[in-house]
Amino acid sequence: MKAILITGGGSGIGRAVALHFSAQGWRVGLADIDQRALADTAAMLPADRTSTHVMDVRDPSEWEHVLAEFTALSGGRLDVLFNNAGIAAGGAFGDMGLDALDRVIDINFRGVAYGARLAYPYLKATPGSCLLNTASASAIYGSAGLSAYSATKFAVRGLTEALDAEWSVDAIKVRDLLPGFIDTNLLSIGLAGTNRTAREAVVESGLEFTPVEVVAQAAWDAVHGDRVHSPVGKTARRLTFAARWMPGRLRRMMRSRVLLGR
């Protein structure tokens, strides 16, 4: 039986991916710092092939413990590590507290890097394995008001590209997802220079939310396909096109949004 370990598995994208892979007969390990959310997700899945693991991705000792615990249940298999846990922090970068900045960097990138490094021996030992990282459409072009978040997601994207090359000799796939706006708790953050949340700004702009089920399908396709980066949703696909073919226009658009916010 194939096995996937999912960080941030208590809600949102992590929960949707857990449901999708479990429906295909996979063993699912749910890792999250929120024990109640873990229990809620686990209740939706078959008990005989689902496990929960409370962990903080910033702590390498917890990574070591959870990886050992999960692979003991899976018969040593780690077919996919889904490095999905992340947080957002909005507001003007110049006003951002250093503690908040550290937290975004530590969870969104340090946690991903720890997961990749410590899962490597397990992935290497599992034929056809895959490291799947959640990046963001903010890793396609930096988002004003989400500077720290964008920076960490660019770092995740860079790590994905580097490891895709480096780990090819070990037959480990490395992939990432670049989802656009997903209606999860991450969109409750405030935007720079405004009294609006990110969710309100998306609605007011007439932009679409991509259902988490679409992201889950994209995760399945990424694991089984050959594309390193997978933009998910209309916004992500438009940003990808604009960043490549209309960078000047995209830059002006980002600047105009900041000015309108003020």
Automatic annotation (TrEMBL):
Belongs to the short-chain dehydrogenases/reductases (SDR) family. This is Short-chain dehydrogenase. One of its GO terms (cellular component) is membrane. Residues 2-175 form the Ketoreductase domain. Pfam families: adh_short. Transmembrane segments: none annotated. Keywords: Oxidoreductase. One of its GO terms (molecular function) is oxidoreductase activity. InterPro entries: KR_dom (IPR057326), NAD(P)-bd_dom_sf (IPR036291), SDR_fam (IPR002347). It comes from the Bacteria.
